[in-house]
Amino acid sequence: MSVELLRMTDGEDATFEDLAMPLFASLYRYARSLADDPAEAEDLVQETYLKGLRGFGSFAQGTNFRAWMFRILRNTFLTSRSGLRAVPPLSLDDESVEVHVIDPVTPEAILMQRLNRDSLRRAIDRLPLAFREVLLLCDVENMSYKEIAETLSIPIGTVTSRLIRARQKVRDLIVSEGS
Amino acid sequence: MNRDLTAEELERYADGEIEPGEVVEMEQHLLQCARCSADALRIMQMKRSLREVMSDEVPSATLRERVRRQFTRSRPQWWMAAAAAVVAVAFVTFLATRTSSAIPELVDMHVTLLASANPVDVVSTDKHTVKPWFEGRLPFTVPVPDLSSTPFRLIGGRVVYWRGNPAAYLLISKASHRISVFVFRDDMAPRNLGEVPATITATAWHTNGLTFVAVAQVPAQDLQQLRSAFASGP
Description:
The complex is a heterodimer of chains A (179) and B (234).
Chain A: H1 16-20, H2 24-34, H3 38-55, H4 65-78, H5 81-85, H6 107-114, H7 117-126, H8 129-140, H9 145-152, H10 156-178
Helix pairs in contact in A: 2-3, 2-4, 2-8, 3-4, 4-9, 6-10, 7-10, 8-10, 9-10
Chain B: H1 7-14, H2 20-32, H3 34-54, H4 61-74, H5 82-97, H6 103-115, E1 122-123, H7 127-134, E2 152-162, E3 165-174, E4 177-185, E5 201-207, E6 210-216, H8 220-231
Antiparallel strand pairs in B: 1-2, 2-3, 3-4, 4-6, 5-6
Helix pairs in contact in B: 1-3, 2-3, 4-5
């Protein structure tokens, strides 16, 4: 396969489609982290694009488009039936968290030994939604704390503490499964 | 710094969220303190594992088509372009019925990585640092070219996952532009590259059992020049 593709730069203003389609795979991953059911995640993505398209006129140019789209998806989910059911029962916004990351048996070591993606997958699935989404935004979507704060409408300090607690929870779940 | 880093400092360090004023002191401590550096490494391993597992979810070509149709419908004078739209939809449907297209997903990765605080895991302009970094992380050797006599500059690299298989990602700059180069082993490479968004330039080539796909927002001749730099060998 020796391929010559392709093209092309044009000077037109970016349309909603130009800005939004590069986020397609990321939005789907976020939808899957929120909704249990793949079909529901697909509907969420489709509805997000529809709402984004309709509301694009009100989007403030120069602000963070990715955070805006993620926020639409999140709000759409939270007002759906399964979103209302998924409201976290824990108090997740305690910022005075102090977790020590040193464990005698490290979950990472267990992971390395077993090369077991399934146990991590199970741990992620068992996380409270607020932990799962913050890990996805940080570790998969590589959002900065500031961008995560903007997306979730929470203070940056809360992003930090929630990430610490989320990773600690993953470790705890893996260790409890491994012991 | 005469104390261990706190859990919060370690997490922020692993996430690339350290303030410029803190970095030097923190890194000096990490060089001297086995305990803290081991903790930082564990967090990075955790991040990597989470990224690998949570990146598994890939949207279907059917969903992409459903979403695209919304744009087509929303165009105010779409009926005037009916013939063109029919051709476009037929073309996209044709692509969707084959294996799903790679370019849109690679463009997604390009945009997402460039927008991130840490687009690369190994930061170096030196191919002798970046190339060995991939050893043990990938089941193939990544040919990192010598760009010193070209207008391009190596920024660094990382491992990315394509449909569950590892691939190399090289980030290269030319002036203020940044170029993503994905390197796949042939048997793990995308089969169908598909359409390229209007604002993006991409090129692909194949050599010595590896497939390269370069994605950027630069003129096409720049990517041709970069391709020649790869072809001239390490």
